[in-house]
Amino acid sequence: MANPVRRRLLELLRDGAQTAGSLAAQFELSRPAVSEHLQILRRADLVREEVRGRERHYHLTAEPLAVVSDWLHPFERYWRDRMRTLAQIMEEENDDRDHPR
């Protein structure tokens, strides 16, 4: 997930299955490099591979992402609260500049 190529592959698969070739065409990487990223995602159970004749079709497997989302949820609240506090401080500073005492 930390790798931007893998994140982009997951984004591309959100809209439905795609062949390895069509996925590779979205990158300025060699097909073997993109295939290596797909294999890493497959081993992590984030995508599944379906062989149809000579083509490999990749599908997003979203269930493991739901586990990550559940884990991240408390952190979202933390950052939302921090951003709200920062916005209040910035607003107060702007008010002080606009209306000096």
Automatic annotation (TrEMBL):
<dbReference type="InterPro" id="IPR001845">
    <property type="entry name" value="HTH_ArsR_DNA-bd_dom"/>
</dbReference>
<dbReference type="InterPro" id="IPR011991">
    <property type="entry name" value="ArsR-like_HTH"/>
</dbReference>
<dbReference type="InterPro" id="IPR036390">
    <property type="entry name" value="WH_DNA-bd_sf"/>
</dbReference>
<dbReference type="InterPro" id="IPR036388">
    <property type="entry name" value="WH-like_DNA-bd_sf"/>
</dbReference>
<dbReference type="Pfam" id="PF12840">
    <property type="entry name" value="HTH_20"/>
</dbReference>
<dbReference type="GO" id="GO:0003700">
    <property type="term" value="F:DNA-binding transcription factor activity"/>
</dbReference>
<feature type="domain" description="HTH arsR-type">
    <location>
        <begin position="1"/>
        <end position="80"/>
    </location>
</feature>
<protein>
    <submittedName>
        <fullName>ArsR family transcriptional regulator</fullName>
    </submittedName>
</protein>
